[in-house]
């Protein structure tokens, strides 16, 4: 190895290739988590599910530069819906997950101004940002689901209302589960990688 190669700096976290690879990884993990680690709840002719895939949606924006961190898990879950019996809501899923990730990303960016990455406040900022994204999804998803099922899919109003009520409770459960898992995984990853060259992935 030449002197020039030895002195070549490590690529920063916004490197396009690195971010594409990480986005693809998060998309794949999101797909696997939803397809194989969910519990379906049948509601008439449609269904919803308990799952922890939203954990990846709010983790990715904290580790991967935009727009890659916003799109990776969203695309993974869009594909998961397409191939696991939820194709009718796949477009809705894609939009909601991008919005969730964007809220998480910009919340963390705003909260982290002038905050040292070594401080406890850094972990708190990450947790708050993930919760902000998850709460946004938990609020928007039932509203979106009602209009989507009623006006785009042509479901009757009463069944649509029943579905929305049940799915809203499931969405909030998923949000709480994902917030807990997200906080634990983020802290674990940060502590594991903080002394390595990969630390620059943490904003």
UniProtKB/TrEMBL annotation:
InterPro entries: ECF_substrate-spec-like. Gene3D superfamilies: 1.10.1760.20. It comes from Amygdalobacter indicium. Keywords: Membrane, Transmembrane, Transmembrane helix. The keyword Transmembrane applies. The keyword Cell wall biogenesis/degradation does not apply. This is ECF transporter S component. The chain crosses the membrane at residues 17-37, 58-80, 86-108, 128-149, 169-189.
């Amino acid at each position: 190895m030449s002197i020039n190669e030895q002195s070549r700096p490590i690529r920063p976290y916004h490197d396009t290739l690195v971010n594409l690879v990480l986005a693809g990884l998060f998309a794949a993990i999101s797909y696997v988590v939803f397809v194989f680690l969910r519990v379906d709840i049948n509601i008439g002719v449609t269904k919803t599910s308990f799952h922890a895939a939203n954990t990846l949606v709010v983790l990715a924006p904290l580790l991967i530069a935009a727009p890659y961190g916003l799109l990776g898990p969203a695309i993974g879950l869009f594909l998961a819906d397409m191939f696991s019996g939820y194709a009718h809501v796949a477009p809705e899923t894609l939009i909601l997950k991008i919005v969730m990730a964007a809220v998480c990303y910009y919340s963390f960016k705003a909260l982290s101004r002038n905050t040292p990455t070594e401080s406890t406040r850094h972990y708190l900022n990450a947790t708050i940002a993930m919760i902000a994204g998850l709460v946004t999804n938990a609020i928007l998803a039932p509203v979106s689901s009602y209009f989507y099922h009623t006006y785009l899919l042509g479901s009757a109003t009463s069944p649509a209302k029943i579905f929305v009520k049940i799915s809203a409770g499931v969405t909030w459960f998923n949000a709480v589960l994902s917030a807990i898992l997200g906080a634990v995984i983020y802290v674990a990853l940060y502590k594991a990688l903080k002394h390595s060259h990969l630390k620059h992935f943490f904003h």
